[in-house]
Amino acid sequence: MAGGEESPVRYSPVRIGKFVILSLVTFGLYPFVWFYRNWRYIKTSEGTSIWPWARALFYPFWYYPMLKRLDVQGKGLLAAALLILLGGRIGIADSYYPFDFFLLFLASTLLAVLPLVPAVKAINDLNERSGTRPPSFGWRWRSAAVLVLGLLVNMATVGVLILVDLFPTGVTYVETPDGPYEAYYENGQLWEKGILVAGEPDGPYERYYENGQLWIMATYAAGERDGPYERFYWNGQSEAGGTYNMGERCGEWIRDGVTVTYDPCPPGN
């Protein structure tokens, strides 16, 4: 176990709650700072020639060696394995909607942070046994400033993404009061096409991603989805599919390979 006698503070203790919150509001950047501080302590106390910044940058692969120094490798072995698996932010590339992408990123960041808790707790326990309570353990003004700034950035990000979802930009419509209509991206790529009857969608409808890949294929009746419906990811992989009955899901639906059954569809749907 590492630890220099010249200083009562060992490693970089921080409250678990503070560690998780700062990791989330900084979009997963805080663990890099925490690992750098701990590896810098190890370098100083052990007199080694390691590069703390490099071990912080690739911390998923250097997590287990730190657990061994803290003598908690038995408890943290599974956590270290999970950290390596989650380091790539599994599943983010499958989300197209900007707001969904943001929520998925926060969720994956939380999953990547939780495996670090055994090491955070071990360092805190180590200092608690020695009666040490460093100023950095609680919320100092710098930590509070990072928290406030991070919250403001997160709020601004959420606001922008909601506006992007609600008010798509860069789309030009070519339509008539009744009959076929089309809408295009700024680059000239078709965005959506359908048929209007009394100002409402009626009949076949298609929407496309900006890369030309089909996004949604559906059928409308009097402004309501009615009939077969399919939705695809930007890479062409099927996301969901099933049948609508005047705006309500019916029959069997499949989303990402999982089947969900609703009330039976009426004859003809």
A few lines on this structure:
The chain is an alpha+beta fold and 269 residues long.
Kindly describe this structure.
The chain is an alpha+beta fold and about 270 residues long. The protein has eight helices and eleven strands. Strands 1, 2, 3, 4, 5, 6, 7, 8, 9, 10 and 11 form an eleven-stranded antiparallel β-sheet that branches. A hairpin with a 5-residue loop joins strand 5 and strand 6 (about 215-220). It starts with 15 loop residues before the first helix and ends in an 8-residue tail after the last strand. About 20% of the residues are buried. Residues about 1-5 and about 90-95 have low confidence and may be disordered.
What is Rg? 26 Å
- Helix/strand structural class: alpha+beta
Element-level helix/strand string: HHHHHHHHEEEEEEEEEEE
Average pLDDT figure: 76
Query: Distance N terminus to C terminus?
Result: 68 Å
Please count the helical segments. Answer: 8
Given as residue ranges, the uncertain stretches (5+ residues, pLDDT < 50) are: 1-5, 88-96
Helix residue percentage? 40-55%
Report the count of strand segments: 11
**Residue fraction in strands:** 15-25%
Q: How many structural units, i.e. domains?
A: 2
**Largest sheet at a glance?**
11 strands, antiparallel
Tell me, what's the shape? elongated
